[in-house]
User: Fold these one by one.
Assistant:
Number 1:
Amino acid sequence: MNIGTFCIRRTLALSLIVLAACMGRADTAKEDYKGFLLWPYVNEQNVSGLSINLFSGSYERFSGLGIGGFYQGAERFNGVAIGGLSVIGSESFKGFSIGGIANGGGRFEGLAMGGLAFFIDSLDGWGWGGLFSDAKKVNGWHDSVLFSKADIVNGCQTSLLFAYTVECLRGAQFALFTYAANRVEGCQIGLVNVASGRVSGVQIGLINVAPGTWNFPLVNPGQ
């Protein structure tokens, strides 16, 4: 046997060993798994460890690091998730996540980024959407490039263009155009600031509008 033939056979043998190891949990039946998963598509129940998928990873509960070419999603996710297109924690997510296009889910605790959009029911931490960010309740910092919308903000809401709070803003709102549909307890800072309800704080901008105030430009004190 010459050296070239031996090298080819050794390479094939090692490849088969690696392939067999990767195939260990590649079936579509949901089950528990601890360790390392490397497969184009993974559909497991409870996973603890590292999962790298060419296409997607889908779990009921995941703890560890999950990387998917297109999608990473779980009902409850603890750890780090990276999806080429999206990351979803339908019930809860604790940790750090990046979705190439979208990121969101139920309750999030940590740091999250969506290339185009970020949407969440409850945010405790920092959430960012490239073009659009939408949250029901924010405890922390809610951010976007073009449009940031939240029902309730306890903390900070920012956007380059437009920041909109539906119910109550407790903290600070920064954008070229800010709007609080109900109550402001804190400050609005922008070129144009509008509040439809009581302002307990201050508006800082070229145009400031709020009921029960003098609507002064530049600095408009609340009630």
Note: Residues 2-29 have pLDDT under 50 and may be disordered.
Number 2:
Amino acid sequence: MEAIFAAGLLVTLAYFALIIVLLVAWVQGLILAFRANIFLGILCLLLHIPLVLIGLIYWIFGCDIPAVVVRALRN
């Protein structure tokens, strides 16, 4: 019985850790969007563009997608 409780607790803690990581990635994506351009940040916030993916791609690959988009549109 204790093993089932421990496994359930471990899964619950892993789930909460995943939720926290995704929330921080969402905030990171929102910060990157606002840092690139205020209008892009507002647009991302209103249209619910996947800010989680922007944050995760920035963490994994180091690519600032909103800044690249703004640079491409200015040229």
Note: The two ends are 64 Å apart (CA to CA).
